[in-house]
Amino acid sequence: MPFSPDTMRLLLFGCMLSMTVLAAFYLRRRELSPIAYTAWGLFALMLPVIGPFLVIWLRPGENRTA
To answer: Is the pTM value of this prediction over 0.70?
Structure first.
């Protein structure tokens, strides 16, 4: 059973939203200034497909649990 275009768009949007939430939760554990947190968060939002992966891969700031 193939998906309709509306269902595919909804699934794509859900995936992009969940990746952005994942990046936000990752950034919460990092020691960043409010401006840096906002900048990295906007970076993750502006590049919705690759941005969250780059935010986690580049590891901005220091780890809070260290």
So the answer is: no
